[in-house]
Protein: Aminopeptidase P family protein
Organism: Streptomyces telluris
Amino acid sequence: MSEVYAARRARLRERCHAAGSEAALVSGNANVRYLAGAAPAGAALLVCPGQDVLLCPGDPCGTPAVARPAEDLRVVVLDGADGDPAVAGAERAAVAGAGSLAVEEHHLTVSRHRALQSVAPRLRLTDLGPAVEQQRLVKDDEEISSLRIAAEIADQALGELLESILVGRTERHLALELERRLVDHGATGPAFPTSVGTGPNSGLAGHLPSDRRVEEGDFLSVCVGADYRGYRSEIGRTFVIGTSPADWQIELYDQVFAAQRAGREALAPGTPCRDVDRAARVVLEAAGHGDRVGPRIGHGVGLENDEDPRLTPSAMGKLDACVPVTVDPGVHLPGRGGVRIDDTLVVRPEADGGPELLTITTKELLAL
Amino acid sequence: MSEVYAARRARLRERCHAAGSEAALVSGNANVRYLAGAAPAGAALLVCPGQDVLLCPGDPCGTPAVARPAEDLRVVVLDGADGDPAVAGAERAAVAGAGSLAVEEHHLTVSRHRALQSVAPRLRLTDLGPAVEQQRLVKDDEEISSLRIAAEIADQALGELLESILVGRTERHLALELERRLVDHGATGPAFPTSVGTGPNSGLAGHLPSDRRVEEGDFLSVCVGADYRGYRSEIGRTFVIGTSPADWQIELYDQVFAAQRAGREALAPGTPCRDVDRAARVVLEAAGHGDRVGPRIGHGVGLENDEDPRLTPSAMGKLDACVPVTVDPGVHLPGRGGVRIDDTLVVRPEADGGPELLTITTKELLAL
């Protein structure tokens, strides 16, 4: 595996050199993990001529929490609770004779940036920008295979929950049970805080589980994902509790389902991101829900639950093959509840069968 | 409750004026919560002449996730997925005619700082520094009462776990069960990722639960805390599994216990933070564990699990009354395991009975 990380760092190094920087200091946590294979909280990675160095904060309680970084990296654990890995990285770059260092200005705080400059006053600090985020967009087979497992785990956890009795249980308990099941099936943990909404809370994106109990006639919406080897799946489904859905529930479900399908079908290499948003959005606008649709229809997933590309009306850029994204439109009617349907898919060319659906739990409207 | 937040903002405003700034932009999440009563992820608070404004990001899926901020605040939810609350705050400050704006340079990234400056080029940006963090150090009665409940919840969750059968269960499952019980007892959630270590993993600070199962003869160490109304308790205990502890286990336990007691007993208003660290550290040094003690013996708790003051050998500053801290020394013997004992206490003057212990689970060495 070490070769994969070395190759990623080689690409970054080339890009830096092309931009006139001799070294780069990566401090975004997912970026460090992508390039080093491991990223203790607060770690920084110095990519420089010679051997790259992973700088880790001294563990607050004495134990270096380094989980197997790539073997060709030098790992340095800083002494004390106060050592700053990014500052130490700048110091090293200067000592190694680098004249300029590209840093991630969108991750470094102003105070740390100032500290970097003050330990290495002769070092010219430039902006690396989202170079690593861009490298992370298109996933390799190994990454997609981790996402596939992460999606399978979320499917399993959700499937098991549906077999249990739901009426009378609180949103909070259902969310905790889902998270326990994720771990049972091999996840490191949830990919993001599990959202469970019942009745008037259903269909609310990012709803934090409350003490409301599931009642007959409720919509129940669930959004859950697994973290498997750092890669994060996402699935969202909405169900009806009880014997049979009301007419307004069937109608709303059909509308959101049609929008979600339109979004999924728009996924193809070369398609502008905004067109995917548009494809789903027009369906909901036509149904009169234009002002109830959120600002975006989906987003990339990978080492972060929410990464590029963003599927929004103003998004720039086009989709590429092997980019995993969610398609997750929803509509919430204040006081009544709503529907959200959310899948993780990988963009694939038509010749390969089109978008690959990773989250395969049924999207029929189940009455539970 | 709104008056509490208004009074906190008034204090900050005074401090800003004294430092020559007309307005302040607070973007550290716990700081925003402290001053506004609520802090959706990414929110920023503009404290300025006239009405203060809480700026919230447009929810990625259309729902403003604002949980009841103080009533005298103006709440603005930004449109779209890309609106930056801090940038919008700077724009407002400029429009309102402020000549200078104090920002939290230790929370703002270089890129955002640049964006602030570019939307309001005439605004002079100064550094607010850790002014709000300093205001948060000494807690009021309401805050301490939330911490007391958070500690009680953690005590209850831990107590119930101890009554169940432990042998054969994995660290991961024990940690999940603890987190479920926290929520059962009224916590919003865990205060931090629950740590459970068995056998060779016991006593490792911040150990992430693995699939190792509890075995006869193991040390079992647990570190858990509850988030109650945003306030975060922390408790750590170490147990022995089986009939009776081995001699080395009793000896190590007694050493760590003596160190932890010495740290607790050193807590008093006016005591230098480093003296608390020293009091516990000398006990472990005398026992020959000097190089196995982590870089610090404890830390403040409140709206964050790990906040000022830090109890380290190089810490500056003295303790005050009504400052809640942990005292959590530990020793880990590689390959064998170790002991960690961790309490949350509130610094109180001798006249009031000395430090108030919030986490009251027994610290006797229990054989389970």
In short: Chain B touches chain A through 48 residues (CB under 8 Å). The two ends of chain B are 44 Å apart (CA to CA).
